[in-house]
Amino acid sequence: MTTAQGTYPALVLNADYRPLSYFPLSLWSWQDSIKAVFLERVNVVDEYDRFVHSPRHVFKIPSVISLKDYVKTGTRPAFTRFNVFLRDRFSCQYCGHVFQTEDLTFDHVVPRSKGGRTTWGNVVTACAPCNLRKGHRLPKDVGMLPLRRPDQPSKFLLQENGRAFPPNYLHESWRDFLYWDSELDSV
């Protein structure tokens, strides 16, 4: 199959028309979305104004697809560095500044050298200068208490936080599905 230059990702919605994930946004390549359409695994909700051609078929490239079968997502989010950053909204929990992911670390509130464990309740997002300043001391010993108490987030919280950080590329056909429950402007 051939297509014009560029990438044309499809927003993937669950069978209930909610995105499978907000952060990272659930996207499939145009190749995977065309294959899923051809195999009748998804419904096409919206399309780009671009076509792909095979020897026998012409397909409009899907921009939004929904799964035919509902995929149940887990109730507890995975404990990953990225999800810690997302829970803390990419902000250092000591100084409060927002940073790019590559400029963040995570800090054990109770250092491992003092018996602290690597758990949701003991890890916070920190910028490198604050992490270095705190070192392996207790927050009260250096006057650096986290801005909010760390805890295990719900999937809902991570989804909500992810919606506040949209990806660099948002096709106009995706907006209704990404922000469908946002408050509307009143006249």
Topology:
Elements: E1 10-13, E2 27-28, H1 30-38, E3 42-53, E4 58-67, H2 81-87, E5 104-108, E6 123-127, H3 128-134, H4 139-142, H5 155-163, H6 175-178
Parallel strand pairs: 1-4
Antiparallel strand pairs: 1-2, 3-4, 5-6
Oligomer: single chain
Q: State the distance separating the first and last CA atoms.
A: 47 Å
Largest beta-sheet details: 4 strands, mixed
- Quickly give the structural class: alpha+beta
| Low-confidence regions | 1-5
Number of DSSP E strands: 6
Shape designation: elongated
Radius of gyration based on Cα positions: 21 Å
Widest β-sheet, arrangement of strands = 2-1-4-3
In sequence order, what are the helices and strands, one letter per element? EEHEEHEEHHHH
Q: How much of the sequence is in beta strands?
A: 15-25%
What's the number of domains?
2
Q: Helicity range of the residues? A: 10-25%
The number of helical segments is 6
Q: What average pLDDT do the residues reach?
A: 87
Model description:
It is a single chain. It is built from 6 helices and 6 strands, in the order ββαββαββαααα. The protein has 187 residues and is α+β, with helices and mostly antiparallel strands. The protein has 2 domains: 79 residues, no CATH class; 62 residues, DNA Binding (I), subunit A (Orthogonal Bundle), CATH 1.10.30.50. The protein has a 4-stranded mixed β-sheet. The protein has a two-stranded antiparallel ribbon with strand order 5-6. The longest helix has 9 residues.
